[in-house]
Amino acid sequence: MAEETTTEGKRRKLSEDQDASSSPYSLLNEDCLRVVLLWTRASDHPNLRLSCQRIRIVLNSEIYRKERSNHGYAEVKVELLSPYEQYKMDRNEDCNKEEKGLPSEEDEEFMNKYDQLGRLGEYGDHDIYSRDFRVLVDGWPLHKSHEKHPRRFRLEMKVLPRRSPFYEICDAHSSALVNLASTLFTNFGNPSVQSLKNALQDDDKLPLLYIGDFEMPFEYRSTLSTVGPLILQALLKILKGRYSLAIYVPYGEPQKTEEERNADKARDPHADLYENELTEEEIREKQKRKERFEALTQQDMRQLFRAGFTQVNDDSVVDNDINYCVYGDSGMDNDDSYYVFVTRQCAIESILTEQQALSMPISSRPPPPQEKMGLSRELFLYVRNNCSAFTHAEEMIKSWQRPLEEFSEVANKMFLLTPYDEKVQETKDLKLTFDRIDSKLQDIRDAENRAEADMEKIIRGKDSILEMKLRLGTLRDAGDLSPINEILTDFIEALIYSTLESPIPPDISIGDALVIIERLETLSTEQEQNVAGFLTENRQAGSEIEDCIPSFKGKIQDYMNKRLKEEEAKLDDLREGINV
User: Fold this and answer.
1) C-beta of residue 118 within 8 angstroms of C-beta of residue 126
2) pLDDT classification of 33: cutoffs 50, 70, 90
3) Helix, strand, coil shares of the chain as percentages rounded to 5?
4) Strand partners, 114
5) ∠ at Cα 171 (169, 177), nearest 5°?
6) What is the CA radius of gyration of the chain?
7) Run of H or E residues at 213
8) Alpha-carbon distance 451 to 447, whole Å?
9) H-helix segments, 41-94
10) Dihedral angle at the C-alpha atoms of 134, 89, 344, 311, nearest 10 degrees?
11) Whether the Cβ atoms of residue 310 and residue 340 lie closer than 8 Å to each other
């Protein structure tokens, strides 16, 4: 039997090879064959795959799927699973499915917790995921690809009732959704920005359709591809009458290639946090990654434009710094000032062309200032670090006052005690307190050592300020203004971190800069005097405590001797009573 099967397989393969050699398609090169197959219907693809091995290879190739999508020949079909199909899928994933038995449409759980869209949430909301749809692209089941699949497809949607407490409903799902709700809506679910108010009708109270994740396989990610917009358009048609407004937050991460994602995983996510340690080459590389991420975000955004979405372009949203936050494993910044929306009345019947989507303007925040390089960066870091050193020294001086106050409280309690009328247990308490005094005394010595170390830092900072003063004076005397015009702007920004009270004028001259340097020198001298005064008081307090310790030890020893004699007298009295 096995030999017959093997023989039959060989015959089939030989027949396919003969068909391939005799097929007219064998005379075409791969590019010409691919062009011919672009025009075919998806329903004919199964038979075409069986007809010829060469055709099967072309139909299964990534470049064929990409070109078919880019030229608008890809056929998309989207279906939402019925509530009962979703219920059966949930029961199969339930760890207690054996105890509950086989699912049925008459189950109480199905009748109470499912409606026409599927699972009901606590607030009457719905979570709809990729598995709840059937998404077919040219007959290929895109919804069956999982997270690690090379052609992964990911879709997550939420249908949220627009009523009070709207913020609480969004908070039950994710922090990103809360950020969207607080930016675009009131707590009653009504729009708070003008662009949404103009788009929505006053009596339209249907739920919000939030598209959380929308990731396509790599061959369908370009703005020229029609698959993504067609899937979105089909979803809006399926849910028509179930929502009033659909919103999506464009994000560049789903548009990245596998090489870019692997590079992000290999990169240290904390490397960009230490600006002082970055080289100029690393700064340029960081800037390139930001520009690339911004381009991918806008590419993701324009795919939604083709499906009929429009940007929320209110100034209060685009220029809102609260919406700018770190997001994602790649460590890039996610600009949540980008929101796109479409109302159910404005949902289009046919997608826009790529030219129409590219011609739509995108409102964005002004680009951040360029990273400082060369001498400008060195001066900026130098002034900022020295100004922050003065503030740190002032905070340290304030923190050292607390150990002295604590020791003073303990010492006052110790010397005001009258332990001679106390019980023997108090002797142990006194010894324990004495040990704490020793510990406090050691803390004072440690604080003195730290103050001396900071005194050295302040003196070094003072020397650096004098060097800067001489440098500016030399440039002024020489009349060389070429490097000053560039560095003064960064110099003024850096001084904002200092404790100077008077504002810095924008048209500062070299003379004014020298005046500011002199004020920093005065501040350094004051800090030096404060630390020196603290050292003097600290040493005096430590000496006074050390002088009192021997007397205090003697008092404790006298008390212990007296208590011992009293206990011995009690024992003698007890012995005499026993003898009697």
Assistant:
1) yes
2) confident
3) 65, 10, 30
4) 119
5) 100
6) 39
7) strand 208-215
8) 6
9) 45-51, 53-59, 62-70, 83-93
10) -80
11) yes
pLDDT confidence band for 230 (50 / 70 / 90): very high
User: CA distances (Å), 26 to each of 65, 153, 160, 367, 521, in order?
Assistant: 21, 34, 55, 54, 86
Closest CA to 227 of 293, 298, 292, 155: 155
* Tokens describing residue 329: 């494993």
**H-helix or E-strand spanning residue 245:** strand 245-248
Query: What pLDDT score does 207 carry?
Result: 93
Locate tokens 């020295």: which residue?
A: 386
- 159 near 209, Cβ under 8 Å? yes
pLDDT on residue 367: 74
pLDDT of residue 420: 40
Confidence bin at 137 (pLDDT 50/70/90) = very high
The per-residue DSSP string of 532-575 comes to HHHHHHHHHHHHHHHHHHHHHHHHHHHHHHHHHHHHHHHHHHHH
Residue whose token pair is 């929320």: 312
**Residue 318: what pLDDT?**
82
Give the C-alpha separation, 78 to 311, whole Å: 25
Give me the residue label for tokens 């949430």: 121
Q: Cα 126–130–133 angle (5° rounding)?
A: 85
Structure tokens at 545: 């405590």
Q: Which two tokens stand for residue 7?
A: 């023989």
Outline where DSSP puts E strands in 291-434: 310-311, 324-326, 333-335, 340-343
Distance CA 517, CA 504 (A): 12
Six token digits for residue 24: 């007219």
Give the integer Cα–Cα distance in Å for 257 and 237: 30
Quickly tell me which residue has 């499912």 as its tokens.
Answer: 114
DSSP 310-349: EE---HHHHT-GGGEEE-STT-PEEETT--EEEETTT--S
